[in-house]
TrEMBL record, chain A:
<dbReference type="Pfam" id="PF00676">
    <property type="entry name" value="E1_dh"/>
</dbReference>
<dbReference type="InterPro" id="IPR050771">
    <property type="entry name" value="Alpha-ketoacid_DH_E1_comp"/>
</dbReference>
<keyword id="KW-0670">Pyruvate</keyword>
<feature type="domain" description="Dehydrogenase E1 component">
    <location>
        <begin position="48"/>
        <end position="314"/>
    </location>
</feature>
<keyword id="KW-0560">Oxidoreductase</keyword>
<protein>
    <submittedName>
        <fullName>Pyruvate dehydrogenase (Acetyl-transferring) E1 component subunit alpha</fullName>
    </submittedName>
</protein>
<dbReference type="InterPro" id="IPR017596">
    <property type="entry name" value="PdhA/BkdA"/>
</dbReference>
<dbReference type="InterPro" id="IPR001017">
    <property type="entry name" value="DH_E1"/>
</dbReference>
<dbReference type="InterPro" id="IPR029061">
    <property type="entry name" value="THDP-binding"/>
</dbReference>
<keyword id="KW-0786">Thiamine pyrophosphate</keyword>
Amino acid sequence: MANRQHGGGPEELLPAERPVRFLTDTGAAVRGRSRYPLPSPELLRRAYRAMVVGRRFDAQATALTKQGRLAVYPSSHGQEACQVGAVLALQDGDWFFPTYRESMALVTRGIEPTEVLALLRGDAHCGYDPHRHHVAPQCTPLATQTVHAAGLAYAERRKGSGRIALACVGDGATSEGDFHEALNFAAVFKAPVIFLVQNNQYAISVPLDRQTAAPSLAHKGVGYGIRSERVDGNDPVAVLAVLTAAAEHARSGHGPFLIEAHTYRLESHTNADDATRYRTDAEAEEWRRRDPIARLEAYLRRRGHLTDEDTAEAATAAEDFAARLRTAMNADPELAPLGMFDHVYDVPTPQLDEQRASLRSELEAEEALA
Amino acid sequence: MNEGLRKAMENDPKVLIMGEDVGKLGGVFRVTDGLQKDFGEARVIDTPLAESGIVGTAIGLALRGYRPVCEIQFDGFVFPAFNQITTQLAKMRMRSLGTLELPVVIRIPCGGGIGAVEHHSESPEAYFTHTGGLRVVACSNPSDAYTMIQQAIECPDPVIFFEPKRRYWDKAPVDRDLSKAVPFDRAVVARPGEDVTVLAYGPMVKTSLEAAQADENHSIEVVDVRSLNPLDEETILESVRRTGRCVVVHEAPVFNGYGAELAARITEKCFYHLEAPVLRVGGFSTPYPPSRLEDHYLPDLDRVLDAVDRTFAW
């Protein structure tokens, strides 16, 4: 019996035979028309600037980790097109569900970098107000946030708000059960949600061929009745084109959309990882050649949409951003230890009150000794 | 249960029921019987068959102001959702410094005694009471079922709501005046007594009351703990200080069970009032046995009375 939820055949859901590309590796326009409209020059200029600032932020955060200012930092250097594209494809009222690797996306969303890094510095589990930015807390277990995004998007659909959700995951997380349950629930509930898989080829050290035997990660959407696409994740024009179409698909009531973006993290998984143990320099070099910023810059310059002044302005903005971050991160905020009891429940339980009193007397004793 | 859910849905349009077979069928125990007919498919939602997905999407719905009540079909099926419950549902409020509130209720029919097959008779409460951020409650009688489910749904915290499945068929008068109801985080003295306090919750309250009734030698006070986290120590400690003896009863295995927390707390806080150590009655440390053996596994009236006798023989 055919499923009434999905009228057409699976071919309507299938991703393109090759990842969608607008730019060659050197930033020339590829030949032929795409099924996706070309993003506006204005959007691409914004993306360029955000990627330049984002990359500088990422480098600064990595440096701060080496200086011991952050406990850990998972870099997204190399993935700038996805980090920035994911955010620029959304409207202010839409909801973003990040993983721990989305710090660059979060600063692109306009969240103070110190608030973004509070998690990785150990100040708070989430340093920003999720309601203010419509951004869920960064998620450290894999794929748990995808079901939340499906549920929230379903709520938006019920309300008829026209808002959508976008959840990021990596290639490794597509093996988690929650990823599959999220796709399934989202499809059945016709939830307006985009699942963006940044396939950066490795789940820490484990390569994609140990993660899946599927033809592509995008193909996983088809079994759930989800329109799916794969895109060159280092081609900012293609990333924005597909994400914009996906957002429109979700917003106009067609349900979820799955995107697999092929990209590469040029750094190790985190500062605690050593990528030389599982991949070669030659491979990284190959991806370095497909640098999303250089490609977009070449493309925009060739079309006359980007000048020397523009690139200089972006570079200065990036340096300013990094300098402000350095200063801000050199301050050591006082943390209130008793605050850990504040938000466990709406009102603390008698047992928590007892434990808080015990910690308070410890602190008072320490203070008396000091 | 059914009336309580109905009332909660009438009072607040944000209340949704989600789960497997909760719609047309009314749930395998018919707890949601007729609710989809009266409130529609948009509020009583038959979900795909995936517990993590049920709880995870409920979290997403709650983030946008809904109050989802998730039915887990049987106790033994809650484990696929364990990660969502303990790492997400429980922690979101603290993770977000109080900005994200998740008023989600997870209803779990629990316990044995109905001759069910494997995975249908479990008592997993201790897994959840161990996790900060969750409220864990168990109802033991029809009146509490009616009031406590409504209080749980109104509560701004996530609540794990245990329903002793063998008591679904119990009949008793229900006080419908919610304003007079005891708050659902308080224990109640189910039967006053003088010589020994028996602490029980969920299915074991009835068993303990029957034991108290049967004991001609001792005056047994039965306290229905009701809320496992938070714990109403005031009511419990007051009773034990008065009687000087205490027996804790639950279906779950004694070893590392919830009763260990009660016994330790009572020992610490009532040490000089105790005439005997706090004794525990509960299941064995085996997987739940095949149903034809469950009568040997489940604590019954005799095991409760035996423990009572032992506290007097100390």
